[in-house]
Amino acid sequence: MVWRAFKWVCAIMVVIIVVLWLSRGTIYRACFHYEVLRERNVVGANSLTFEPKRADDINGCINTALEETSCSLRFTTGKAESRPDRALVSGKANCIGYAALFKARCDACLKDSGMDKEWTVHQEVAEIHWGSFNIHLLFKSSFWKDHDIDLIENKRTGERIFVDPTLYDTIGVDRITGPSN
Predict the structure, then answer these.
(1) SS3 category, 176
(2) What value, to the nearest 5°, has the Cα angle with vertex 126 and ends 122 and 128?
(3) 144: closest CA among 155, 136, 132?
(4) Closest by alpha carbon to 152, among 124, 121, 114?
(5) What pLDDT shows up at residue 181?
(6) How far, in Å, CA of 31 to CA of 134, rounded?
(7) What does pTM read for this prediction?
(8) Could you state, in chain order, the average pLDDT of each consecutive group of 10 residues for the chain (181 residues)?
(9) How many C-beta atoms surround the C-beta of residue 129 within 10 A?
(10) Residue 173's closest CA among 40, 30, 14?
């Protein structure tokens, strides 16, 4: 009888873990949002050339850029290049390098797909908030004072899509919640 109860508890725990993992994006977006502080000027993106990639829509460009950024870099809290051309050579980056490489790759995909007249990509310096609490206040290191993300914006409609390439590489969350339009 005890063994049977143990198996049921284990099965329920596995189901809960799987559901939480599959819902991680929804849970993350419900708990955390980003406040943009300023735009970061990207240096070194013009020297990059990418194999042409066409996408049918903006989500295709975003997903291609996220996947290629994730495959090209690994996260480090140590010293790392923030320029996308140099980050590609070293293979490691912090959030600045991730966001810069994503921007360069997404810009190239938008151009290849003919969507660059309608959509633009901005690398933004932001803070992560849990409710109204700025989580960066928990860290003393200057490394954690802010976080770089990317904003993809429709020039005509003002639609905005926020992504965190570092978060995507770490836990697979592909979209984040930014400030309202």
Answers:
(1) strand
(2) 135
(3) 136
(4) 121
(5) 46
(6) 12
(7) 0.89
(8) 86 90 90 94 82 91 96 90 91 94 95 95 95 89 86 96 96 88 46
(9) 16
(10) 30
